[in-house]
């Protein structure tokens, strides 16, 4: 987002716009920028929407002052907009930090949180839930998310088993290949189930693309513990990730068990991703562009990338969702379209600018 | 993303297929140049223009018809050609005596279709080049895409009547439909105010605008669609924001997702922000049969009857002042 530059500029902190060689320290300015971004996203997300509300009144109401808003306005704010904004924050933060962790642990810049088949597995789980459960299933709270969650975890477990089968040590590359294989397998199964139950296509489709549109506090409560767990474990392991980047042998020489460490990080990141996917459907790109943008702007070390990915991921997805529900208002756009459409060019711009300032 | 993209593509491809079936592809179906047959027993060969504007010639009266979509199946049985139907696709659940098979109109398999040795195949969409595949086997194919207007429905019935040797019965069905629709629309009392409605396709708030076939049916009884402002940019089948719907507060809510997605008056009332909607509070949520509300066959009349009944029950507002 462009938020950080203006925010830090305003506070008078001078932050170089490019990554310094080696491992950078996490600067207070960037953290402040991230927090400012989140606050801005929260306010913008709640104030702006297809239904025009008095912005000042909304802000007053949010901080508990007498706002003069009607009961139906307050329903719109507290039952429809706020949970959606909060869910977007949690999903964005989770996907971004998990993406950063995956890239670190696999030493692959293209690794995204769906790498080990989480998305395909969740899709299969959701499809089975809708197909087998029959009518009315998706109005049963949390029924589909539970299946999606299980599907995602089964995928990751399979990928891990395949990647470490035959006594191989489960190197990063084997894991990635195993993930690709498992994802293809899961997708094949999902399409097979979908074909067998064609009347469910519409429902499966709306699960795949549309979860934030009907977000409520229930989804927020389900996701929150996983986000907290994922964030705490990953941020606590930020040093370990920096060591893993050096390579398995070097990490072992420094007293780490690379295999076990990788397992812990992968399991936690997968758990978080699975939880996010199960309540929000598939939202691409966040897990790749946010960590990379942070690396390019603020520095490469995981001490920087993990916390900032969390903050900017949350901010990014709230703004993406804001566009999704206002661009064609009162019609909605799938949020995955927004994250890719605006994320990809923005990422290219960041890449271009940072290259130029480096040379 | 490497997993997301192919998946999205696959799924959206299927959606497009679904929407095509639902919406039709907007092709202008020329008025069917049905061979005017006045004799009691129609003579073959006949040539009909199908819904895609293509001339199809049948050398003899078909006796092994395969229908690959629910609406053509309903039409065939309505015009008395049911006994000539040999197989229908897996979604053709009406009428009950239709010979349902596991054939699919979404993923048509030419070999599986040919296995029934059809002398006429009726379908709505040319998916995966199935028309060319059947043409290679010299099987006549009548394409009847989703109707955009009631006139399209009438033309399709007429074309089917000619093609199957039931022109008089088809004409009778059309005449009765026209009369019934006129009678039902006329039976709705005129009101001073215009009632608004929301037609729900699924619980993620996909809906229709007045530009669709189904939207036009609502228009027949003077209802106003709350989604029309979304239609300009969101297409004929937009997904609405929940807050927009809550704010628009439609007088009537029609659920066309009772079978697919298990929605009902109760589930609607439990949604966040929906309990306060006038339609929910005053019991004006109408549970439709998804099938009837998404097909453009003879049962459109039943659909209109339900809608008209719901409108008639809404009391006229007490004039103020």
What does this structure look like?
The complex is a heterodimer of chains A (359) and B (321). Chain A has 359 residues and is an all-alpha fold. Chain A has 15 helices and no strands. The radius of gyration of chain A is 21 Å and the shape is globular. The longest helix of chain A is centred in the N-terminal third of the chain and has 36 residues, at 71-106. Chain A has helices at residues 3-11, 28-47, 55-62, 71-106, 118-133, 143-164, 172-196, 201-209, 217-236, 238-244, 248-253, 258-280, 286-298, 302-326, 335-358. Chain A has one domain: ABC transporter involved in vitamin B12 uptake, BtuC (Orthogonal Bundle), CATH 1.10.3470.10. In chain A, helix 13 crosses helix 14 and helix 13 (286-298) packs parallel to helix 15. The radius of gyration of chain B is 21 Å and the shape is elongated. The longest helix of chain B has 21 residues, at 167-187. Helix content of chain B is 38%, strand content 11%. Chain B is of the alpha/beta class. In chain B, helix 5 packs antiparallel against helix 6 (167-187) and helix 6 packs parallel to helix 12 (300-313). Chain B has helices at residues 4-23, 70-78, 110-114, 130-136, 150-164, 167-187, 213-220, 228-234, 242-248, 265-270, 278-281, 300-313, and strands at residues 46-49, 55-58, 65-67, 85-88, 120-123, 141-143, 196-200, 224-225, 252-255, 285-287. A 4-stranded parallel beta sheet of chain B has the order 4-3-5-6, sandwiched between helices. Chain B has a 4-stranded parallel beta sheet with strand order 8-7-9-10. In chain B, strands 1-2 form a two-stranded antiparallel ribbon. Chains A and B meet through helix 4, helix 5, helix 7 and helix 8 of A and helix 1, helix 8 and helix 9 of B.
